[in-house]
Amino acid sequence: MPEVTAPLKAATSASLYTRSNPFPGKLVVNRRLSGPESEKDTRHFEIDLTGWGLSFEVGDSVAVYPTNDPDLVEEIIHALGAKGDEPVAAGKTQKNFREALLRDYSITQPTPKFLKAITRRANSSTLLKDLLQPERKEDLDRYLWGMEVIDFLNEHPSAKFSPEEFVGLLTKLQPRLYSVASSLRVYPEQVHLIVDVVRYESHGRVRKGVASSFLAERADNVPVPVYPSSAKHFHMPENPDTPIIMIGPGTGIAPFRAFLQDRQAVGAKGKNWLYFGAQREKCDYAYKEDFDRFKRDGILTRFDCAWSRDQAHKIYVQHKLLENAAEIWKWLDSEGAQFFVCGDARRMAKDVDAALRKIVQEQGGKSVNDANSYVEKLKSDKRYKRDVY
Ligand SMILES: Cc1cc2nc3c(=O)[nH]c(=O)nc-3n(C[C@H](O)[C@H](O)[C@H](O)COP(=O)(O)OP(=O)(O)OC[C@H]3O[C@@H](n4cnc5c(N)ncnc54)[C@H](O)[C@@H]3O)c2cc1C
Prior knowledge:
The relative contact order is 0.14. Helix 1 packs parallel to helix 6 and helix 12 (317-323) runs parallel beside helix 14 (348-363). It contains 15 helices and 15 strands. The chain is an alpha/beta fold. 34% of the residues lie in helices and 21% in strands. The strands form 4 sheets. A 6-stranded antiparallel sheet has the order 6-3-10-1-2-7, covered by helices on one side. A 5-stranded parallel sheet has the order 13-12-11-14-15, sandwiched between helices. Strands 4-5 form a two-stranded antiparallel ribbon. Flavin-adenine dinucleotide binds at residues 61, 108, 145-146, 176-179, 194-196, 198, 200, 202, 209-212, 251, 254, 387, 389. Residues 61, 108, 145-146, 176-179, 194-196, 198, 200, 202, 209-212, 251, 254, 387, 389 line the site of flavin-adenine dinucleotide.
């Protein structure tokens, strides 16, 4: 890690690089964090932002505009019997079909409009027609899980669309958000990200997440368009003496690496307690060297890890929290700590929330209702902050 003394430059160009005018970042580091035995491909990316003007805070995210997979684009062009050089609408301009499929349209998830058009044009789509009835929404969702636009084109070769018609059935390619994993005080010209690369197999094909596979496989020699996305609800306490408890399993660790860098850089006196979690210590311990150093330097006051698959029963961050209930309660209630959660919204954030309520109830000697009111007050006082996805 470089010296941690750089004062922050004034954020003079906060709105210069926006959704409609992203900054052309340069991917300078693309490193796998997970070991070969891991079930995941978790990567560390460093994007050079020289010339950006630097205007994000730790806790914020950056949005990345991906480019679609060129192999998939060619396959779609072929399935439609097109050439790729046909002019089509792309935003307010016209582009050739291939370019538009690469950069402007979402070409993986089928839209309702696309599915309806398939049923109108294809000779054999009774099942799909049936599933598009409003009362079969759940069945449709189940059927669509793991299905992409290309599957429908291949399955229904009788459904023909001109390139212009086809793009009319798609939606715009959306940027993806990634939590900032570095502090500008330490890396003044860069943003670091930690990303789980989405890859899975369904219906006999390997599928790839658009943005995560763009960063992992196709961004080494092309501009990576990025713009800042402020997350005011997730900023660090204004007072550097305030203790913080950070729960960040998986890629949820990103903002907390940035928080710790920032706190070290400004010499913040506040105590820092980090919870990290992943499947296996041996191959999923992202940023181990950073955390070892933060411990050695006295920045990390407490550090607990939950390795879910290292024993017969699963251990997650919420279990580790409950093991330290009395101490967590002391930090929260007597020392005014702020409680941060980042990462998986579907399960982790709910389980951590339940653990927090249990701690407040048991350690604070409160009824369920009083514990819930206490947690709600933590939220309204901006001491319980979440950035979950
Ligand atoms: C505020 C915020 C911060 C975020 N920070 C981070 C971060 O720091 N790191 C990070 O890695 N991500 C982060 N994300 C998530 C990130 O934005 C992307 O959603 C993620 O990288 C996937 O994008 P993608 O384009 O690669 O995949 P997409 O092309 O969007 O594909 C994902 C979709 O594929 C489908 N899918 C995935 N797996 C399967 C499966 N096994 N079977 C069938 N279908 C499947 C699902 O429909 C899923 O929605 C954050 C999101 C938000 C909102």
